[in-house]
Amino acid sequence: MTNKSICLAFEVHQPFRLRKDFFWNKRMFKRSVKTEELFDYYFFGEKDREVFEKVARKCYRPTNEIILRLIEEVEDFKVAYSVSGVFVEQCERYGYGKDILEDFRQLASSRKVEFLDQTYYHSLVSLYEDAGEFIEQVKAHRELMRDLVGYEPVFFENTELLYNNRIAKLVENMGYRGIFAEGVDRVLNGRSPNYVYAPMGCKNLKVILRNYPLTDDIGFRFSLKSWKEYPLSAAKYASWLDATPGQCINIFLDYETFGEHHWEDTGIFEFLRELPAQVLKYRNKMEFSTPSEIIEKYKPIGTIDVRNLETTSWADVEKDTSCFIGNTMQWACYEYLRWLEPYVKESGDGELLKIWRYLGISDHLYYMFTVGGASGDVHSYFSHFEKPYDAFITLFSVIHDFDARLRAKIKRADYPFVFRDDEKVWSLKGLCEYLKNRRAEEIEDTIRVYVERGDFERWIRESMGEEEIARELEDLRLSLSLSEEQQKYDAVKLRDMICEIICK
After folding, report:
1. Which member of 162, 186, 282, 319 has the lowest number of beta carbons within 10 Å of its beta carbon?
2. What averages of pLDDT result for each successive group of 10 residues across the chain (504 residues)?
3. Are residues 330 and 433 in the same domain?
4. Could you write out the DSSP letters of every residue in 81-93?
5. Has 160 been annotated as catalytic?
6. Does residue 179 contact residue 168 with C-beta atoms inside 8 Å?
7. For residue 385, what are the domain limits?
């Protein structure tokens, strides 16, 4: 008889929080602030340190200690972690952090703990139409995990379990063997989340689903005295797992469940200590497995089909994207930030790119959730703002300030210059970089045409209002045309003359 696999996985994440007083203290558009000072200018370092060190004391250190001991003492106990890049950065900044990172290294060395990949910045870039930024952030996280735990993860968990067919295909194309998703009822349509499935349109990738009722029994209801099952013991919970049919039961928890969401005096740590032994009492029926072991052990029993406009997540009762981009404030900030991507990348400024990515941390939008009820209470619990509208005012004003600085740096255009190969540039710096990075044969047939027609000068004049630069290009065009000198210049020399004018 094949044992049923129990997968216990943890999400470990802390955001960098924005300063609450940014707009109200009139901090916008101060020219004296340099690019290298923007992180401290935008982000609430004092609050981040306070929260991190508090949660480290209450949750990370004691929970790590328990897991390390269980890994050492219980032969068949296994777990999985998904750790965001910005959490690791906070470990490197704040007290207790180096000890926490060393804990993770020890866990990885046990070979009984699997670390998953995610987006480095715990962002929503998997929803962007252009997949480039998503791929870059995942690769950055993969490199981080290689440095932190000594291997490259083969299993993927997207931010907040955001999932659709397109995301699954992107993940498969990046070489991952499996992906986590939420066991959403409307997607399963009567099927059980406790099986391995195949994502629609994928050949090799497999998907496993979080059992959210059983996860929420620990995550949300453990210390709820009005709950009919209170108090929840490890023995009782193990009996529920045993009674639940399927190949695998995937319990995916916020790591802060232990000691922070449920304080030590609720008995949450005792529950965690006792759970492995209680599960393994059913040794002939249940065993602990990592996500990768599950997809190796079981074949998919069916297909999961989530179309792109029906993206699922693990957030709130809706289990979609509405907790992040469900209202006008959230959508405005999301769109504004996404709109800046090509500009910030053309700037070639690594610090500006990093700040832009920090502004994309999903928590900033999560704080703007305006629907009340139990979901609203959860959002308010995590937010350091008094109201969702305060979170909006702060993020939007920060993005606007960032936009102004970016515009000044790159001389941003109102619309892009589109080349014949459909490549687009949005700034003088971008135009110069595009021309310099092309081989002579790639520009031979096009650059003279652009010059003869006045395309560059027209775009610079109309889209940027840079009349002086446009006039210099016009003078170059006229002088070459009138003297028939243009034929003497090869494409590379002509390109260099153009770049000398636009990149002063």
Report:
1. 186
2. 88 98 90 94 97 98 98 97 98 97 97 97 97 98 97 97 98 98 97 98 97 98 97 98 97 98 97 98 94 98 96 95 96 97 93 98 96 67 91 97 91 87 87 83 75 90 90 85 55 84 80
3. no
4. EEE-HHHHHHHHH
5. yes
6. yes
7. 323-410
